[in-house]
Design brief:
CATH architecture: 3-Layer(aba) Sandwich
Cofactor: Mg(2+)
Low-confidence stretches: none
Keywords: ATP-binding, Ligase, Magnesium, Metal-binding, Nucleotide-binding
CATH superfamily: NagB/RpiA/CoA transferase-like
Mean pLDDT: 95
Shape: globular
Largest sheet: 7 strands, mixed
Enzyme class: ligase
Organism: Flagellimonas maritima
Order of helices and strands: HHEHEEEEEEEHEEE
Distance between the termini: 20 Å
Strand order of the largest sheet: 3-2-1-6-9-10-11
CATH topology: Rossmann fold
Radius of gyration: 15 Å
GO molecular function: 5-formyltetrahydrofolate cyclo-ligase activity; ATP binding; metal ion binding
């Protein structure tokens, strides 16, 4: 399938899910994260969920990372296809942007070179680790600035598609994708 077809399909499938079910699936998915060998790392970038888009709820994962004393880094969109990363602290204040994404207002900027693990939002992914995001290129640009060994983990409430037909040379593949049913390793 083509990316634009997959975007439409998965946006519709998400809207069919209740918030209660989405919460349960997000907790199950978070528990699967414990099985991935990432716990010796220090800096974890994680997206903040867009509630009305029914994205995976990342709050349980953030709570887990805090419980393991990890440095949590959250994104703020700063320009055309550009993300700036901020350390999440007890004093971090948030404001929703035009896409209703909660973003840190200010704080301690963390360079891409320090980030060990990135949890990536997506709409769909395939069995080869290709992903479909919202089509703005923010995460591909951001991941291109990270170290080559940075671990890239997608989070999805749905399982993999067989294939995404229109992969671009700048698309960054995942190392893992976690669903409530399965951990995909690429």
């Amino acid at each position: 399938m083509l990316k634009h077809e997959l975007r439409k399909k998965y946006k519709n499938l998400r809207q069919e899910k209740s918030f209660s079910l989405l919460s349960d699936l997000s907790i199950t998915l978070t528990n699967h994260v414990l099985q991935i060998p990432i716990w010796d790392f220090f800096y974890f970038h994680i997206f903040l969920s867009i509630e009305q888009s029914k994205e995976v709820d990342t709050l349980p994962l953030i709570t887990m990372l805090q419980g393991k004393d990890k440095n949590i880094v959250v994104p703020r969109i700063t320009g055309e296809s550009s993300i700036e990363n901020y350390l999440l602290t007890d004093s971090t204040k948030f404001k929703k942007n035009k896409w209703h994404i909660p973003e840190p207002v200010d704080g301690i900027v963390v360079p891409e070179s320090k980030i060990d693990v990135v949890f990536i939002p997506l709409l769909a992914f395939d069995v080869k680790g290709n992903r479909v995001g919202y089509g703005k290129g923010y995460y591909d640009t951001f991941l291109g600035k990270c170290r080559k060994e940075t671990i890239k983990i997608g989070l999805s409430i749905f399982n993999a598609e067989d294939r995404i037909d229109d992969i671009h040379k700048n698309d960054v593949k995942l190392d893992y994708c976690i669903t409530p049913d399965k951990i995909y390793r690429f």
